[in-house]
Amino acid sequence: MHSSKITGLGFYVPKTIVTNQDLEKMFDTSDAWITERSGIKERRFFTEGKDTVSNMGARAATIALENAKLTPKDIDFIIFATLSPDYNFPGAGVLLQRELPFREIGALDIRTQCTGFIYALSIADQFIKTGMYQNILVVGAEVQSNIFEMSTRGRDFAVLFGDGAGAAVVQRTKGEGSKILSTHLHSEGKYAEDLMLEHPGSKLKNRMTPQLISEGKHLPFMRGNMVFKHAVTRFSEVIDECLQANNYKIEDIDMLVPHQANLRISKAVQDKLNLPDEKVYNNIQKYGNTTAATIPICLSELTTAKQVKEGDLVCLAAFGSGFTWASALIRW
Ligand code: COA
Question: What is the C-alpha separation between 251 and 230, in angstroms, rounded?
Answer without folding.
Answer: 24
